[in-house]
Amino acid sequence: MLPSRRSFRDSAPLLALLAVVLFAGAAKASVGDRLPEFRDCVQVCEAENCRDGKQTPIPPLRRLLLWDCPAECDYTCQHIVTSQRIASHQRVEQFHGKWPFHRFLGMQEPFSVLFSLGNLWAHWDGLGKIRAHIPRRYTLRPFYVTLAYVGIASWVFSAIFHTRDFPATEQLDYFAAGANVLYGTYYAPVRVFRLDRATPNRRSVLRAWTLICALLYCGHVAYLKGVRWDYTYNMTANIAVGIVQNILWTWFSIQKYRESKRLWTTWPGLVVAWVMFAMSMELFDFPPWLGSIDAHSLWHLMTIAPTILWYNFLIMDSKADMASTERLKA
Q: Model confidence over 247-279: pLDDT tens digits?
């Protein structure tokens, strides 16, 4: 029996407390927030604007996105200090692990939000294509549907994180992104080696592979939450897992093209190269153009098109596979 709405309301305080405990974390520090002029600016701003009974009004939309008076002072002082440094020909510094972006409608990184929503749409569109063009009887369909849902969830949390950066939103973004990468590596051998086919040996391998991936993900999250929140480890783990699926799909693409000489069989290799180039944007981090577009947002922009191409490949591959099966039966 499903719990009633009242039971959810009654448990809301406990759930909120659980979320705070689960996602509480240390704030990131950068050169910018250690600058004396920045600290002095924040101190003066809070003294003038954040006193009890005499706080400067904050627009409702920003309040809805949890902007309070200290956060307003922090944001304002970031841009005051950055403007002063640019005027004196000093380099732009990061604050709290981020560049000083110009917010829009209360969003801290508006272009990263926009491009995250673009990726979300690409997965949503892909889900629609899978449902429309791949019949339910096709045994790989559930894996592709799950791929779309995991992708959608990942980019929802990315958009939330880039809207407002809190320890909770950051960690949800990282865990969802990790799940997205790991699921990509999970279903790659399922397709490449056809572990979806109902033979005893393949079913056993599939169950073992599923368990391994589930344990790896649980261990990953447990380490980050229970041992150490380590950005270098998180990036290394995601890259290592991603390399596995990139190798599998590149090999698969080469083999399929040699067999069929069909152009669409090269798409996995193209997507792998495209995504690797997009990820290289992270290596060339730079202060945001016009205070809005940085390397990270460009990375998000550049993953939209290969996602669309990838779902088109899954449709073409599924149709070709079903046609081949029908010919063998005939």
A: 999 999 999 999 888 999 999 999 999 988 888
| pLDDT single digits (tens) 73-86 | 999 999 999 999 99
Q: CB within 8 A of 244, min separation 6: which ones?
A: 185, 188
* Measured distance CA(113)–CA(9) in Å, rounded: 30
Q: Which of 184, 182, 189 is nearest to 214 (CA)?
A: 182
CA separation for the pair 81, 294 (Å, rounded): 19
Cα dihedral 52→81→78→29 (10° resolution) = -100
**Beta strand residue intervals within the chain, DSSP E:** 50-51, 54-55
Q: Which residue has the tokens 């067999």?
A: 259
- Do 190 and 147 contact (CB within 8 A), yes or no? no
Phi, psi of 139 (to 5 degrees): -70, -20
Residues 46 and 70: beta-carbon distance below 8 Å: yes
Q: How far apart are the first and last CA of the chain?
A: 48
Spatial distance between the Cα atoms of 306 and 298, rounded to a whole number of angstroms = 14
Q: Would you say the C-alpha torsion 73, 75, 78, 79 has a positive or negative sign?
A: negative
179 pLDDT above the threshold of 70: yes
